[in-house]
Amino acid sequence: MGGTGIILYLQSLRSPALDIVMIGISVLGYRFAYMVMLPLIYWLVDRRRGWVLALVFLLSMEFNAVVKNQTKVPRPFINDERVELIGPRPHTYAFPSGHAQGSMLIFGGLAAMYPSAISVAACGAVIFSIGLSRLYLGVHSPIDVTVGWLFGGLGLAAMWILFNLNQANPQVLRRWRVRLFWIIAGFAVMSFQPSRDTVLAGSTLAAVALLQHWERRWVGFDNCRRLSQRIARLGAGFIPAGVVLAFYKSLAFESLWVRGIFFFIMGGWMVLGAPFLFKRLKI
Q1: DSSP annotation of 217
Q2: Domain range holding 130?
Q3: Per-residue pLDDT reduced to its tens digit, 109-122
Q4: Cα 167–168–169 angle (5° rounding)?
Q5: How far is Cα 98 from Cα 190, in angstroms, rounded to an integer?
Q6: Which residues lie below 8 Å from residue 258, measured CB to CB, with a gap of 6+?
Q7: DSSP-assigned letters across all residues of 9-73
C-alpha cells in the first residue's frame, strides 16, 4: 500500500467522533501548543533541562520551516483529489511534518527527563498518535511524518547529549560563546529564509538564549515542588502572557518585524519576566 493508499484507508474509517478525536490529538502538535508546553516544563518541571529543551526545539522548528519552504511539497489533499481535508486548512508546505518533528522533541524530551517504562510508553503513544492524526486528516503523507520523526530523533539525540553535559557541568552551556551560537543561529536562519514560522522560532530562540543569562544573574528562581506553588506559577506566568497575546492579536496589521518583536517578548517572558515575578511573589 502506497502513501496515498494509507491515507485513503485511514479516511475510510471516518466517523464524526473519530474526526473530533483526531483533530484533538493533532492540536497537541500545533506550534502554539508547544509555546505553552515549553514554559510549563521550564517553570514547573525542570528549569535546567527545560532551557536546553527549548533551545533545541526552537532551532529544530526553524530548520523544519526552512526545509518546507525549500522543498515546497504540496499537502496530500491538494496533490490528490481523493484525499479529503479534515479540520483546519494548513497554510504551509507538507515536507517534513512539523507536528511529527515537534512531538518527537517535546514528548521524547519529557521521556528523557524522566526515563521509565511508563513514561517512554506514554510519550511514544502520543508521538505516534500525533503522526497518525496528520495522515488521517489528509495534511501529510507517510514520508512527511517519517522524516519529521527522523529529524526530531536527531534533535532528541543532541538534546540528550546536552542534558548530560548540562547536568555534569552546567557552566558550559552558560558561556557567552555558547549562547552566541544559539543567538546567531536563530537570526541567521531568519535572515536566510524570512517567513512567519522562521521568525517565530528564531526570535523566541534568541530571547531564550540571551535573556536566561540575566535570569541566572538577577533572579535565580528554582524548581518548585509543592502543588500550590505550581498552581500559583501557572496563573502568574500565563495570565500576563495571555494579555500580551490578546493585544498582539488585536493589532490591525502584522509584519515580520512586529511578529519577531512579539515572540522575542514572549521568549523573554518565559525565561526572565515570569521567573522575576515568581521570585517577587515568593512562589
Answers
A1: I
A2: 3-281
A3: 899 888 889 999 99
A4: 95
A5: 17
A6: 251
A7: HHHTT--HHHHHHHHHHHHTTSHHHHHHHHHHIIIII-HHHHHHHHHHHHHHHHHHHHHHHHH-P
* Residues contacting residue 261 through CB under 8 Å, at least 6 positions apart: 203
Per-residue pLDDT band at 87 (split at 50, 70, 90)? confident
Q: Is the pLDDT of residue 223 over 60?
A: yes
Q: Positive or negative CA dihedral for 146, 152, 155, 160? A: negative
Q: What is the pLDDT of residue 192?
A: 83
Instruction: Give CA angle at 242 (240, 247), nearest 5°.
Output: 100
Crossing angle for the helix pair 117-136 and 142-168, to the nearest 10 degrees? 150
Q: What is the pLDDT of residue 163?
A: 82
Give the least confident one: 42-56, 117-131, 157-171, 184-198: 157-171
What span, in angstroms and rounded, lies between the C-alpha atoms of 246 and 153? 34
Instruction: Label residue 2 by pLDDT band (50, 70, 90).
Output: low
**Grid coordinates given for 259:** 511578529
Amino acid at 127: I
Count the domains in the chain.
Answer: 1
Closest CA to 93 of 70, 62, 68: 68
Average of per-residue pLDDT across 64-79: 91
Q: Which long-range contacts (CB under 8 A, 24 or more apart) does 110-116 make?
A: 110/41, 110/45, 112/156, 112/159, 112/160, 112/163, 113/45, 113/46, 113/49, 113/163
Which of 22-26, 56-60, 168-172 is least confident?
168-172
Helices (H), ranges, the chain: 3-11, 16-27, 31-40, 47-71, 76-79, 98-113, 117-136, 142-168, 171-174, 176-192, 196-214, 227-250, 256-268, 274-281
